[in-house]
Amino acid sequence: MKIRLLSGSIIGTKTQIAMKYALTKLIAQYPQEDIQLLDLKELNIEFSDGRNYLDYSNDTRYLTDELMAADIILIGSPTFQASIPATLKNVFDLLPQNAFRNKVVGVLMTAGSSKHFLVAETQLKPIISYMKGYMIPNYVFIEETDFDRGTIVSDDVLFRIDKLIEDTYLFFQSYQIVWQKKEDSYDF
């Protein structure tokens, strides 16, 4: 199974810290799986210009290929101006409409205050649904006060990230069984 974590910003550190924690937990819990962090800070991604994702090259092609091949995607996003960052939106624009078909998607959101709690609901959920993905309903929202000196200090947040990882993995396993039953029902 391919699990990809997407850290969706090129600035700031809080989302990256949360995603690296999730990466460490995933590797510890599921060492048999193919797990990788795709950090937009470390990639040189082109702006979407309407081409097919297969027509891009270098980091852009690498990123889109990895997301298209993934079974599970954990998306980490900061909140900028009560929305997701343009860098993350650009990733979605690079991908085809059905890019998340049969993929399970978990979300971690970081923000400066609790006022932005619904950004995942109003911004990410519609995009993931439009792209045919299954978003885990209980995403993790992490506030500024949950961090101290480059570390997540809230035990509640750490517990919720652990739970998101477990729920996402179990949800995918359950859906694999359902999808296989559906495939097996066809007589051709």
Description:
The chain is an alpha/beta fold and 188 residues long. It has a single domain, classed as Rossmann fold, CATH 3.40.50. It is 43% helix and 20% strand. The protein has 5 helices and 8 strands; from the N terminus they run βαβαβαβαββββα. The strands form 2 sheets. Strands 1, 2, 3, 4, 5 and 6 form a 6-stranded parallel beta sheet that branches. A hairpin with a 2-residue loop joins strand 7 (147-148) and strand 8. The chain is globular and about 55 Å long. The protein starts with a strand and ends with a helix. The model has no long low-confidence stretch (mean pLDDT 96).
Features:
two-stranded antiparallel sheet, 188 residues, Rossmann fold, FMN_Rdtase-like_dom, 8 strands, 43% helix, FMN reductase, alpha/beta, six-stranded parallel β-sheet, flavoprotein
CATH level 3 topology: Rossmann fold
Number of DSSP-assigned strands? 8
Number of separate domains: 1
Question: How much helicity do the residues have?
Answer: 40-55%
Number of helices: 5
Rg over CA atoms, rounded to whole Å, is 16 Å
Q: Give the amount of beta strand, in percent.
A: 15-25%
Distance, first to last CA: 26 Å
Mean pLDDT across every amino acid position:
96
- Specify the structural class: alpha/beta
Low-confidence stretches: none
Q: Which CATH class?
A: Alpha Beta
The helix/strand series, from N terminus to C terminus, equals EHEHEHEHEEEEH
Fourth CATH level, the homologous superfamily: Flavodoxin domain
CATH arch. level architecture: 3-Layer(aba) Sandwich
Query: What is the chains' assembly state?
Result: single chain
Shape: globular
Major sheet characteristics: 6 strands, parallel
Organism: Vagococcus entomophilus
Protein name: FMN reductase
GO molecular function: oxidoreductase activity
Domain NADPH-dependent FMN reductase-like: 1-143
